[in-house]
Amino acid sequence: MDHPDILLIGHVTRDLLSADPRSDYRLGGAVSFGAVTAVRLGRAPTVVTRAASSTDLSALPAEAEVTVLPSPSTTTFANVYTEQGRVQYCPARALPIASGDIDVRLRRPRAVLLGPLVGEIGPDVAGLFGDATLVVAAPQGWMRRWDDAGRVYSKRWDDAGGILRCLDAVVLSQEDIEHDLSRLEPFFEHVPLVVVTASCDGSTLYRCRGRGAIEKTRIPPRPAEEVDPTGAGDVFATAFMIRLEETGDPVQSARFANVAASFGVEQAGMGGIPCREAILAYMQEHPFGPAAGGP
After folding, report:
1. Shortest CA distance to 235 belongs to which of 252, 212, 215, 260?
2. Angle at which helices 30-40 and 250-264 cross, to 10°
3. Tens of pLDDT along 165-206?
4. Which of 70, 184, 236, 287 has the highest count of CB atoms within 10 angstroms of its CB?
5. Is the distance from CB of 226 to CB of 201 less than 8 angstroms?
């Protein structure tokens, strides 16, 4: 049985180009940005998603193996960026993804990213993977609610424990926790690695050493000329997971992911996601770590 290399689970999305639900869209979602990132890094992605049959998936890389589960609709987002941050609307949602939707042959990848957008991944999915698999989650979709108009808001992830116990790392943004670091405490109880991204300010890595001991390392950013921030967190999460699987070094993996995401925001959509060589070249020119005088 051939086992997948990089497995990505979650909804693809229709990212509307305006607030009008009839407007054109680009393909988005953690699995979409993650698949392109994996290919640019020389890895082989497998995607499990749900979408309506009419959804244009041509932006997914040809190298990806894609399973599209049926749904009457595709998860749809409209992102409005303001000086105060992003205002997001979700006018349509696809059906959930459960453990029975994950083929047995896909359950032993080298690494898996759980990338829920609207809580679509059930807790039974996180427990499918054995010790040989690096299990990472970008949990924003478990930390969202929306009103009758579809406007999206952050919420506490109150029933997180069952999923967190199955994870090796969590990647989320300051926006996901509304800049309230106290909301990280449940993660520290169960997950050995937590990374919090902060846009142009880089990211912070928390290593949980047991008995409440938390080691904190700030990872500096690569300065970027931002054109489109959509998907930056997904690029970061995928790049971090891949580099962590390859090296076992969370600090340099977070630095690698910072650089990858910074290149990604310099073009619209997925066009700016860099290749491995570009990331490593920047890291060599701008070393970070104890040897370079960093934390």
Report:
1. 260
2. 100
3. 999 999 999 999 999 999 998 899 999 999 999 988 999 999
4. 236
5. no
Give start and end residues of each alpha helix (H) in 180-268. Answer: 185-190, 232-247, 250-264
Exposure string of 143-182, with b = 16+ CB inside 10 Å and e = fewer, is bbebeeebebebeebeebeebbebbbbbbbbbbbbeeeee
The model's pLDDT over 22-57, given as tens digits with 9 standing for 90+, comes to 668 899 999 999 999 999 999 999 999 999 999 999
3-state secondary structure of 23: coil
Phi then psi for residue 70, to 5 deg, are -70, 150
Query: Could you give the C-alpha distances from 188 to 191, 211, 239, 266, in angstroms and in order?
Result: 6, 10, 22, 33
* Cα 111 from Cα 114, distance rounded (Å): 10
Both tokens assigned to 294: 């960093």
